[in-house]
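quick q for whoever's on today - can somebody do inverse folding on this one?? i tried earlier but teh output was garbage lol. tokens:
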């Protein structure tokens, strides 16, 4: 009976969603999986994936979804997300098509949220603008980088962000960068806030010099991190009170190469969990991550915090799915 009610609700939601997508002329797809949309290549089925092309379209879409009470989450390149293996009964707003064009006006650079961050770093370096060359090796979109305040090799996106365009009441609204708290891999943006684009303020410099610094950051990355593997970058944040980075800490415990089914602690960088095989499971990566946290807690007295975002499927009456959700619930409880 409960299952039938749930099915009816979903069917009603599907009709509303198809109507909204058709009215706004936005592509809406079924049958996609997180395993196709995230860099870890794991994660279950998604009810709907909507891919807007423009900032205006994206703002209108989320407004309509909110009004209709339909749950949604924004996704860029999925390079910092670990979605569990359950069926995710919400809409994923895939922003990687919303690329637009980079507009450069003196030191100001305006870019859409779906634009590739590595691509942007190359564009501005060629245009003789400095300030983000350390970020050149970070996969993902500008929107994902803003959300997480992505950073590497002395640069963080938040420090050069003049303003951010967000979706409010169906419109594109600009908010000043200084009104946002840019912390270590965390910002004050609230759940449900859609970032549409940003204007960065960079500094003029010789393109050749910027390129040298960008190449240097890239080669340091290549020397210390796995490449060509399926990962989400660093799995855990570095603990603020520790002088030893998380990677070194895990390495010191001899956990490089440790495996749980399809998930392995990278032999190159111990803070990277990589997945292997056609049918890799999020469950394996989560179990391995928890094993690491448990040992660090026991042996170092430190509570590691996830840098990767854990996305869980909505509650369901299905037993199998429920148990996989409970394990993520448990993770979130431990995390806090
Ligand atoms: C090999 C590798 C190396 C990495 N190295 C680094 C590094 O050095 N430094 C670093 O900081 N990160 C690093 N990362 C992590 C990741 O690349 C960054 O966090 C990146 O900025 C995420 O961008 P994305 O588009 O993939 O975001 P996603 O993974 O798609 O999303 C991440 C979060 O941002 C939210 N989000 C995405 N777009 C929007 C939007 N438009 N509006 C609102 N919310 C949005 C999502 O909902 C999610 O909560 C690495 C990842 C990999 C795979």
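ok took a stab at it. sequence:
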């Amino acid at each position: 009976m409960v299952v039938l009610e749930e099915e009816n609700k979903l069917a009603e939601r599907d009709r509303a969603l198809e109507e909204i997508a058709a009215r706004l002329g936005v592509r809406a797809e079924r049958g996609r999986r997180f395993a196709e949309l995230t860099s870890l290549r794991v994660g279950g089925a998604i009810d709907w994936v909507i891919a807007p092309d423009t900032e205006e379209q994206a703002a209108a879409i989320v407004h309509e979804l909110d009004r209709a009470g339909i749950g949604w989450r924004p996704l860029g390149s999925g390079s910092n997300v670990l979605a569990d293996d359950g069926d995710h009964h919400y809409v994923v707003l895939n922003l990687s098509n919303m690329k637009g064009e980079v507009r450069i006006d003196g030191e100001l650079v305006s870019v859409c949220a779906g634009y590739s961050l590595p691509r942007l770093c190359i564009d501005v370096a060629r245009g003789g603008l400095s300030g983000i060359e350390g970020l050149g090796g970070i996969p993902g979109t500008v929107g994902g980088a803003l959300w997480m305040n992505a950073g590497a090799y002395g640069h963080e996106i938040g420090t050069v962000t003049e303003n951010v365009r967000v979706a409010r009441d169906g419109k594109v609204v600009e908010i000043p960068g200084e009104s946002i708290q840019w912390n270590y891999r965390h910002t004050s943006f609230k759940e449900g806030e859609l970032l549409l684009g940003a204007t960065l303020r960079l500094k003029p410099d010789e393109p050749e010099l910027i390129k040298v610094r960008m190449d240097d950051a890239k080669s340091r990355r290549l020397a210390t991190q796995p490449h060509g593997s399926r990962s989400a970058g660093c799995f855990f944040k570095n603990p603020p009170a520790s002088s030893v980075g998380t990677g070194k800490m895990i390495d010191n415990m001899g956990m490089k190469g440790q495996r749980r089914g399809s998930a392995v602690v990278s032999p190159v960088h111990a803070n990277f969990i990589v997945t292997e095989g056609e049918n890799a499971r999020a469950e394996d990566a989560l179990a391995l991550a928890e094993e690491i946290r448990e040992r660090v807690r026991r042996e170092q007295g430190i509570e590691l915090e996830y840098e990767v975002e854990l996305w869980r499927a909505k509650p369901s009456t299905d037993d199998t799915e429920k148990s996989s959700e409970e394990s993520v619930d448990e993770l979130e409880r431990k995390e806090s």
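fwiw The longest helix spans residues 2-24. also Residues 33 and 45 are 4 Å apart (CA to CA). so keep that in mind when u check it
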